[in-house]
Amino acid sequence: MRYSIVVPAWNEAAFIGESLERLREAMDGVSGHVGELVVVDNNSTDATAEIAREGGARVVFEPINRIARARNAGAGVAGGDAFVFVDADSWCSARLLQTALDRLAGGRTVGGGSTIASDRPVSGGARRGLDLWNRIGTTLKLAAGCFVYCRRDAFEAIGGFSEKVYAGEEIFLSRALKRWGRRRGLAFEVLDEDPVVTSVRKIDWYTPAQLARQTALVLLPGALYSKTLCRTWYDADNRRDG
Questions:
Q1: Average pLDDT of 215-229?
Q2: What single string gives the DSSP state of each residue in 36-77?
């Protein structure tokens, strides 16, 4: 099966080099499938695009700074029959990638996600928060944005990621894929055997209260449609510099 890994990236020069290197290692460890790596430069002002090209990725440009638009732009140029969306500060193992692709190729899965592990040790509170999300994701079958995989035909049929929201677009996609798959007898799965690794840099940028507020927004009706309320997803470059 042909697959495309799509990486949305906005001012990710500090992280994307290592992430792409690890993704390449995972791709090299996969058998029975042929993949490509697509990075979407979401109007970066740093060296993100240059680093991505040096890392062997195909780079496309999306001028409007919104994560859903970046993900959809990558899917729009990708050539795979399956899509794997991975954040620019995250990476998956060959085992996780192989499992996801095998499930899709088997014809009984529409898509899914994975549990999450941090890229470094974290405090007890952060650890409990991560564990809580993993329980919610596996119980409710909701994919975390740092790793989402799905069939191309399903993705296109539901219209891709919702561009009406500024965050949480993976939740909307998970629900839409589950509905599409249910009508066709296809499962939506959150894999828990080998978690995707993601950066916990936001712990350094924000207070616990700010992070709790960000998490609560996902549950607040209408909040995800406001860029102002979702600003912690869109000021990462300022936090990195400050």
A1: 71
A2: EEEEEE-S-SSSHHHHHHHTT-EEEE--S--HHHHHHHHHHH
